[in-house]
Amino acid sequence: MNYDFSHLTSLVVDDDPVYQMFLSKILVNTLKTRTITKNNPIEAFAWMEENPLPDLILMDMEMPLMDGFTAIKKLRSDDSSKGIPILACTRLNSKELVLRLAQIGINDFIYKNSDIKLIASKILKALKTIDDNSDRK
């Protein structure tokens, strides 16, 4: 199937350049989104101050300078960004983590060691939801 979400912008926030590239390839090559990558939430917030807000954010949970939990709480507390769908990316796999992520308002999560098809399907689901709820058709 061919997907074209070129009218949507995805923001990948992860301190691992290899994982950034992995997610970017799914977003750009498979799903055709405009994709921005940042190494940490501080860079991401600086970019968002100067540019239109992204339609989707993929946020690593464990980063130096500011962790993903803190960043998501900040995004959810700001009226301009609180509605942006966020997929939390983590290597950790525990029920406690999933509950904690749900409490801070993520839309879904991606285990970094998951199969590429599962990761792509979660991103696709989020993009379809955005597209279905968007006035931009």
Instruction: Give the N-terminus to C-terminus distance in angstroms.
Output: 19 Å
CATH superfamily: Response regulator
Tally of DSSP β-strands: 5
Q: Look at the structure and give the CATH class.
A: Alpha Beta
- What share of residues is helical? 40-55%
Largest sheet: 5 strands, parallel
User: What order do the helices and strands follow?
Assistant: EHEHEHEHEH
Structural class call reads alpha/beta
Number of helices: 5
- Regions with pLDDT < 50 over 5+ consecutive residues? none
Query: Which fold name corresponds to the CATH topology?
Result: Rossmann fold
Overall pLDDT confidence: 91
Whole-angstrom Rg: 14 Å
The spatial strand order of the largest sheet comes to 2-1-3-4-5
Described by the principal axes of the CA atoms, the overall outline is: globular
Question: How many distinct folded domains?
Answer: 1
Beta strand %: 15-25%
Give the second-level CATH assignment, the architecture.
Answer: 3-Layer(aba) Sandwich
Description:
This protein has a single domain (9-132), classed as Response regulator (Rossmann fold), CATH 3.40.50.2300. The chain is 44% helix and 18% strand. The protein contains five helices and five strands, in the order βαβαβαβαβα. A five-stranded parallel β-sheet has the order 2-1-3-4-5, sandwiched between helices. The two termini are 19 Å apart.
Report a brief summary of the structure.
The protein has about 140 residues and is of the alpha/beta class.
Would you spell out the secondary-structure blueprint of this structure?
Elements (H helix, E strand, L loop, with lengths): L8 E5 L3 H14 L3 E5 L2 H10 L5 E5 L7 H10 L8 E5 L4 H9 L4 E4 L4 H17 L5
Parallel strand pairs: 1-2, 1-3, 3-4, 4-5
